[in-house]
Inverse folding.
């Protein structure tokens, strides 16, 4: 199974909703708002469960990010997803590398 590691933005997605409303109003109802830290190749169910068990107790303090650019996929006319890139921050890199 193809997997990725991400930080769920949950209640902190208000600013993203404003960006979507201004730029891509059709995507405003998108539920899944997250920061992707790392994409994985194919993982077995056992590998996924092992990773989940290691990550479930992970804790980190709040941090700020600075938005960089916005891209729509597959195109800007009829997007089905939007990527909002952030500038590399020490905290994000620290999480990605841990």
């Amino acid at each position: 199974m193809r997997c990725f590691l991400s930080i769920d933005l949950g209640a902190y997605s208000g600013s993203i909703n404003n960006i979507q409303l201004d730029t891509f109003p059709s995507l405003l109802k998108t539920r899944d708002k997250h920061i992707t830290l790392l994409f994985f190749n194919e993982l077995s169910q056992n590998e996924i469960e092992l990773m989940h068990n290691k990550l479930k107790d992970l804790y980190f303090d709040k941090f700020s990010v600075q938005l960089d650019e916005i891209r729509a996929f597959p195109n800007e006319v009829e997007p089905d997803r939007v990527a909002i890139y952030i500038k590399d921050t020490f905290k994000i890199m620290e999480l990605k590398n841990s």
